[in-house]
Amino acid sequence: MRITKKQLAGIDQYKYSGVDKSVVSKHILGPFWTWLVTLFPKTLAPNTITFLGLCFVFANVGTLLVYDPTYSGRDLPSWVYFSWSFGLFAYQSMDAIDGKQARRVGMASALGEMFDHGCDAINTSLEVVLCAHALGLNRSWWTVASEAASLCNFYASTWEEYHTGTLYLSAFSGPVEGILMICVIYLITAIHPSGQGFWQQPLTSLIPGSFAAQAAHSIDETFGLKGNKSIEALPVNVAFMMFGALGTVGNIVNSYSNVLIARKKAGKPLLAPLLGYLPFAAHTAILVFWLQAELRGGVSLVHDARLLPFLGYWGMSFSYQVSQLILAHVTKSPFPYWNGMMVYSLFGAVDANAEWLFGR
What we know:
This protein has helices at residues 5-11, 23-36, 46-67, 78-105, 110-134, 141-164, 174-191, 197-200, 211-223, 236-266, 278-291, 307-330, 341-352, 354-358; strands spanning 18-20, 167-169. It is an all-alpha fold and 360 residues long. It has a domain at 14-200 and 235-275: CDP-alcohol phosphotransferase transmembrane (TM) domain (Four Helix Bundle (Hemerythrin (Met), subunit A)), CATH 1.20.120. This is diacylglycerol cholinephosphotransferase.
């Protein structure tokens, strides 16, 4: 990614602004992070701490590749899921203290924030891969939907920061409560005798008594829902995905609300910022179009072993897109509507769908 001389001049004017409404980070994790940063020498660069945390996540992905390289949904040893929980918590902790280390040693900078956000974007995509495996979703459209929703959530926060100049963390945010929730998912999968099977059982089976099952049955009869489409058969993992979708929608609405307030104060157009979602929406649409292409044997890429490297490409291209946006934010540059990675994705999508598009 190229930084122009004009952008370098804009970096000098940048000043970080953040609002954290999380009770967990303020009263529980905050004191822990304040203590943790003192364990690192002052000679250690803040970005090095962030990268060390990301290495824990890379190690987690490495264990997945060792035990289930084709992402087929094979149950992994319990210790692997325990290590995923520890690795993610370690990343969260190191990601939280890099700013403290920067202020501690006088190395706070705009480029440091760019590096931090880039690492966060990579981690978000990789955790979708790991979490979908722990939930027993694996090669499915639910995994694809989870990737799109998680990255959209991240993009919305970055888009909000660009237009407001402030990074907002709500009372329930991805970097704090969201990560802790995923850590718990890994622990449950590790501890439960059936592993992934815990998340694949009907949601009603987890609720004591017969009321939940009877209520679900009544809803199914009312709306004519049968088989896998019925509420009674709704798996825990799918219910979790639906819950996550609601959270994503809520975060987008909250982000736009903050942007509206900032735009009104500045006397700027209120709808124009929504155009900033077009680059993300366009690239996501291209990637989904690529994924639905049929391979030899009549299966789509979603249900093939190549889904795993594809998700890796998706995550890296998203990290580049977010880094463009952060660069524009810290340098006061125009919004980056164009993303060169879209060209590569478009070529791949057209090639994968060539038979359907061109009849050959």
